[in-house]
Backbone:
């Protein structure tokens, strides 16, 4: 079983739509949670960290449910530029260290 | 500020040959990581340096892979001898000395073993 599981998609939604991604992790000792974004043939880039209380950054909202070991990302009012692969990332440590990637969910926004 | 750089961007070698990948982290970043993405799979951790010391090398697949970071600046990852299953994209990332949640990734080296 993979340590971080994601729906691979692809999600194909119209511009302006709201889209949600989910992710589950298997190691209950995990301490840090992130969403990274990866454009085609590019490197992953941090989109946002995920905190227990939930956090928002503009059109993006991340939620963490430790009891269910579940992380979500909500994108509101999606833009064409949001098309990318979204990677759920988990770490067993609270500081910079080894991170575990999910296989990613591909999102395609159509005009 | 320059980002993480990797060289070469692409490498095509034959099975049994040796390849050396290089990573230059962001200046001042003590933490340096190597990751690999094999076709169709998720990005996987290979190892973590803190300055010149290997902090965690639990992800190194076998002894054909050798990573070094002499002087605590740039790092090299050598594959010798290369096998077909080593093909993939090798990413390097770095993060600052203080506890940091963000790892800054380089553009990757696409390795093809034929």
Residues:
């Amino acid at each position: 079983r993979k340590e971080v599981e994601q729906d691979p998609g692809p999600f194909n939604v119209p511009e302006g739509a709201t889209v949600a991604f989910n992710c589950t992790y298997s190691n209950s000792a995990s301490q840090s949670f992130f969403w990274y974004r990866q454009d085609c043939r590019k490197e992953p880039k941090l989109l946002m960290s995920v905190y227990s209380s939930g956090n928002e950054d503009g059109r993006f909202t991340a939620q963490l449910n430790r009891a269910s070991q579940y992380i979500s990302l909500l994108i509101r009012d999606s833009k064409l530029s949001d098309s990318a692969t979204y990677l759920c990332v988990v770490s067993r440590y609270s500081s910079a260290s080894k991170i575990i990637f999910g296989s990613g969910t591909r999102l395609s926004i159509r005009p | 500020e320059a980002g993480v750089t990797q060289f070469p961007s692409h490498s095509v070698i034959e099975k049994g040959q040796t390849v050396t990948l290089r990573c230059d982290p962001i200046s001042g970043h003590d933490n340096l990581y190597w990751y690999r993405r094999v076709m169709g799979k998720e990005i996987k951790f290979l190892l973590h340096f803190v300055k010149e010391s290997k902090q965690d090398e639990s992800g190194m697949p076998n002894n054909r892979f050798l990573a070094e970071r002499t002087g605590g600046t740039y790092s090299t990852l050598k594959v010798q001898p290369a096998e077909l299953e080593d093909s993939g994209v090798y990413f390097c990332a770095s993060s600052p000395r203080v506890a940091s949640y963000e790892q800054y990734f380089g553009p990757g080296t696409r390795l093809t073993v034929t």
User: Anything to note?
Assistant: Residues 38 and 88 of chain B are 4 Å apart (CA to CA). The two ends of chain B are 37 Å apart (CA to CA).
